[in-house]
Amino acid sequence: MTQRPNDTRLSVPRDRDNDYTPEAARMRREFVSGRTGADLSHTGSFSFDPAVTRGNIENFIGVAQVPVGLAGPLRIEGEHVSEDVYVPLATTEGTLVASYNRGMRILTEAGGVKTTIHERFMQRAPVFHFNDARGAREFAGWVESNLEQIRMAAEASSSIAKLSHVERYAVGPMLHLRFNYETGDAAGQNMAGKATFAACEWIAKSYPGGARYTLSGAMDTDKKHSQLNVLHSRGARVIAEARIPSSLLRERVGVAAEDLFRARLNSFAGSVMAGSANNGMHAANALAALFIACGQDAANVAESHAAMTYVRLEDGGETYYWSITLPALIVATFGGGTGLPTQAECLDILGCRGKGKVRRFIEICAATVLAGEVSLAGAVVAGDWVESHEKLGRNRG
């Protein structure tokens, strides 16, 4: 095969002694500027020592400065937060912060959002391989009989991870095991992977005749939506609910409770037709903006945005009950990107930085999602959705 002249690969430069310095970042910016002609003056303007990014990024060159807006106050009546909060939202979409701000005002004036966490687990799902289905069935019984030893092997890998339960799913000559862990204030994907590897190694050595496995059989659904998460939860299963007087809805968004209820029936049918992962309006908007502002893994929006909205008319149609259930909200207040400077500051705004704060953050996320549902649904039904984007959004001239 003839090599073309431009096939020579120029690697991104690195400093083998210490790659997390201002000089190393400048070296890479100059390298890519020389190759592309790009001006990286804004990318290279940051206020922290690159050393703090170790473990968060490789080949660091600078920052992506996403605007952060503030919405609120939002009154939350939860089990881990019971107060008015102000919510930082990082976005480039005009109208988003204004819309959430309006939804928060409505919910606060209605008495606040009630939040409830049902459960919170992180999974890793290995698959074990056998000659036939009966071998897989025999192994399933052995796993059940030896669950305590498996738990000890898994938990020996971490001072935080606690194995709650193991689901079993048989397919042909295979048995999928879905390990469910409590992971403290961390999101826990890596923690769950390390603990499950330790458990699988113990199983492979201890099962009579040995056992062959693949650490992930894809039933853990990392960074992907799945119906399994909707039914069994991944991350937190959290519910935000509110009762909003029809008079308040008419005053703030120009529509009555019965108008919103009628529209909900229509949109529910459309969601079923589309096979949507969310029968609500736009949970991904709130979660993406919160995730970016607060140092979460933004790819987890793929799982976290799944939601089920449930509504009903109460008090003869004068009160609108509105709830949204997030069955796979994956967040952290410790580890990952939560310790980076601007992200830590946004968590401080919420009172959510550090250990012991993850459930507070979960409740704030769910309440913020509900605020966005209220505002956007009202805008769509009232007919001022497009007008708002023309006035505040990307179409402004």
UniProtKB/TrEMBL annotation:
Gene Ontology MF: a single term: hydroxymethylglutaryl-CoA reductase (NADPH) activity
- Matches recorded under CDD domains: HMG-CoA_reductase_classI
Keywords, alphabetical: NADP, Oxidoreductase
What PROSITE patterns is this protein classified in?
HMG_COA_REDUCTASE_4
Composition skew (Basic and acidic residues), residue ranges: 12-24
InterPro entries on file:
HMG_CoA_Rdtase, HMG_CoA_Rdtase_cat_sf, HMG_CoA_Rdtase_eu_arc, HMG_CoA_Rdtase_NAD(P)-bd_sf, HMG_CoA_Rdtase_sub-bd_dom_sf
Q: Does this entry carry the keyword Nucleotidyltransferase?
A: no
Coiled coil (UniProt feature): none
Q: Which GO terms describe its biological process?
A: coenzyme A metabolic process; isoprenoid biosynthetic process
EC no. given is 1.1.1.34
- What top-level branch of life does the organism fall under? Bacteria
| Sequence segments annotated as region (Disordered) | 1-24
Tell me the PANTHER family matching this sequence. 3-HYDROXY-3-METHYLGLUTARYL-COENZYME A REDUCTASE
Q: Which family does it belong to?
A: Belongs to the HMG-CoA reductase family.
Annotated protein name in UniProt: hydroxymethylglutaryl-CoA reductase (NADPH)
Lineage runs: Bacteria, Pseudomonadati, Pseudomonadota, Alphaproteobacteria, Maricaulales
